[in-house]
Design goal:
Number of domains: 2
Number of helices: 4
Largest sheet: 6 strands, antiparallel
Helix content: 40-55%
Amino acid sequence: MGRLAAALFATAFVVPFMASAQQAPPLQQAMSEAEFRAAGLHKLDAAELARLNAWLDRKVEQEAAAAVATAIEQAREEGRREVVERNRGFFHFGSDAPIDARIAGEFTGFANRRRYVLDNGQVWQQTDSATLAGVREANPAVRIRPGALGTWWMRVEGYNTQAKVQRIE
């Protein structure tokens, strides 16, 4: 189960049950007899004690509701970050930060329409006629950086030639 799915499951099913289970027991049950007396609560009449217990229940419910709201917001933000990171490089989506990775397997140079599978799972395809012949390297480091108007450029570490690429997976 992905992190987003787990967070949504927790938010939708687990957190509400936790919140309802958070109802405070009456003070006379939550405290020992000595604690109850030491706090001076034995001096309250039944109506005063009931009002204090009702206030305490409302306070616990408010704190549980705030915790649920925080958990929902955190799950949304984590899901948003996951979607942005997973889809970087598709069109104009995601961050404009360069992508540093390694080509998975052997790199044999640039050639138009050649596909490059990265170790992070992304697949990029060259869209220009840049060439880099005579190269044969295993798992070289690459940097893919955004250019103008939604273009992306790939450069292999140790070489000055760069190729225009497009993310396809």
